[in-house]
Amino acid sequence: MSVWHSAVDGGSHQRVLTSSKYRGVSAAAAVSALATGLKPCPFCIGETAGIRHSNLIRECRGLPLSQHLCYKDVRWFHKKTSTVLNSKPVCDRWFATRQINPGLYCIGEIHYWEWNRANLWLIKGQKQDLLIDTGLGVASLRQHIASLIDKPLLAIASHVHFDHAGGLHEFDHRAIHPAEAKALRSGDNHAALCSHELGFVLDEHFEQLPYEGFTAMQYTLHRAEPTQLLQEGDVLDLGDRAFEVLHLPGHSPGCIALYDAKNQELFSGDVIYDGELLDQLPGSDIPTYIATYERLQKLPIDTVYPGHYHTFGCDRYQEIMAEYLEARRQPGCPGEVARG
């Protein structure tokens, strides 16, 4: 999971609608408001046009999502607008693939919201291939990459969030950390952040539809039985290169990254990326995230291939961690209080 709470914290990625203003209006009127650039916040529908962040959102801060003042309005809004919003065209293709080098491909879901669009990494090995993350699962990733697969493939979820583990069920060999195996096995929508009450899967995040009739309200995590559990220190040997499994919780309990010590490359999932780092999701833990970054600061790195946005090198890698640690170690911040 990438950016979702920027509206609450004053970011620029989203603006939201006023629930009182739009109660009882037609779906077409609500969609007309969307066309002007307004978008519902994943937490709240609680702002008028031209007002950045209302008291309603501030009053909701720190509350469980089920207690948010506008919780019911989120569901009302989706019910009102889903039919009109999803008169969008069905896409010709859902995925796009870029070859990074002869042994590495990056796959993206090009019609999904760029701020939460995951990077899906296909690593070609001598005797085995790896697929790190599988996207939303709304279109067949297995079919899309079929022409690139000529040896056994292990599909890995860096963690169970819906934008990373949604398509894992398609693959015969599936791996995840034990801390999130139960959530994958049971199709736990809350742990995957895609339960309806959380409001993180929104119709307006889909520029085109993956298939006719798709709506965000029908989205769920496909349950899948892991065929392999990846523990800290496990080594995945592809023949010509090897990856060590690093258990790096904080963003979620079962976050892992794959580290190629020889080439000093890190496939980081959502542990680190060059964007807003999320540490207040269900299952997140700030003190644990701090400990993870203190560990990673000592790891030799040349290139990071993250779960979102662009790749980056050692300097930016260290900067991201230093900025996070400085912010979270300040007196009175949640991380400092939790550690004390």
State the separation between the terminal residues, measured CA to CA: 28 Å
Q: For the record, what CATH class of the largest domain applies?
A: Alpha Beta
How many distinct folded domains? 2
The CATH H-level homologous superfamily of the largest domain: Ribonuclease Z/Hydroxyacylglutathione hydrolase-like
H/E topology pattern: HHHHHEEEEHEHEHEEEEEHEEHH
CATH fold-level topology of the largest domain: Metallo-beta-lactamase, Chain A
The main sheet comes to: 7 strands, mixed
Helix coverage percent of residues? 10-25%
- The Rg value, from CA coordinates, equals 20 Å
* β-strand number: 13
- What is the strand arrangement across the widest sheet? 1-2-3-4-5-6-7
Low-confidence stretches: 3-85, 334-340
**Strand percent estimate:** 15-25%
Total count of helical runs of at least 4 residues: 11
Shape: globular
Please state the average pLDDT score: 81
Structural class: alpha/beta
CATH architecture descriptor text of the largest domain: 4-Layer Sandwich
Explain what the structure shows:
- This protein folds into 2 domains: 6-85, no CATH class; 98-196 and 222-339, Metallo-beta-lactamase, Chain A (4-Layer Sandwich), CATH 3.60.15.
- 25% of the residues lie in helices and 16% in strands.
- It is globular and about 50 Å long.
- It is built from 11 helices and 13 strands.
- β6 (174-176), α8 (181-186) and β7 form a beta-alpha-beta unit.
- The chain has a 7-stranded mixed sheet, with no helix packed on it.
- It is an alpha/beta fold and 340 residues long.
- The protein has helices spanning 6-9, 19-22, 27-35, 55-60, 71-85, 141-144, 162-165, 181-186, 286-296, 314-328, 334-339; strands at residues 95-101, 104-109, 120-123, 129-132, 153-156, 174-176, 228-229, 235-237, 242-247, 256-260, 265-269, 303-306, 312-313.
